[in-house]
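sorry for the late reply, my laptop died twice this morning and i had to redo everyting from scratch. anyway the thing you sent over, i finally got around to it. pasting the sequence first so we're on the same page, its 245 residues, then the predicted structure underneath. double check i copied it right bc i was rushing
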Amino acid sequence: MIQNGCYRLEQIYSRKRLAFGTITLPSLPEDYLLLLIADWSELARQFLQQLDRELTRHSPKSRGHYVGVTEIQPERMEKSGIPCPHLHFIYPAHAGDWNWWITADRMRQIWHSILSARLAQWVPADQLPEINCRAACNCQRLKKSAAKEMGKYLSKGSCIKKIKDSGYIDFLPSAWWHCGRILATAIKKHIIPCPIDLLLAIRQGIDLVGRGLCEYLYPVERDGHIFGWSGKLSDLGNKFFRNSS
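ok and here's the structure:
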């Protein structure tokens, strides 16, 4: 879904109009961090929903056009032992004139508001910590293929075993990826069953990239186990496997 969403976004807007954003949790005492980590998927959903609403005000046709992937920050976990997640997301940023519809400062305001409101549900007003989102939100123009940029985060799973061993397994996100509803609906309309010959070729370890049938193809792994494959058929591969099914 994520890579297909990226391809679709590039088709609609071109890479020049897309931006790559990241939000994470600011530095806070451990108790407050764990409260937010436990509710990460909902916090990410609220942020993307608010982002989408503001983008829609500038460009109604951009409604529901975004994708996002959650990743555990390995370096931060190495230092603190706490599995802090962050969200990478791709969205249409401007009309082609580099006059950004939403600035990084506005995103920080949105994120600060969401985090503050969530902590206020659990913590008395006189005990609320100071939340500094200056370094917790970043956005920049998309420099590489959106699909490849997001695909590498989907394939990461090196922290999962460490999280299990650390006792924080219950804090893992309930959702690892997000896709705007309108974009997801458009993608689902184009989903077709994978040709049997393609599945057999992957299972037999045939070099589909070397033979010019795929532009790229790699396994999606978690805890050392392959649970899927991600790739893109070349024009030759598209014709070959569709005709063989």
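The chain has a mean pLDDT of 86.
thats about all i looked at so far, will dig more tmrw
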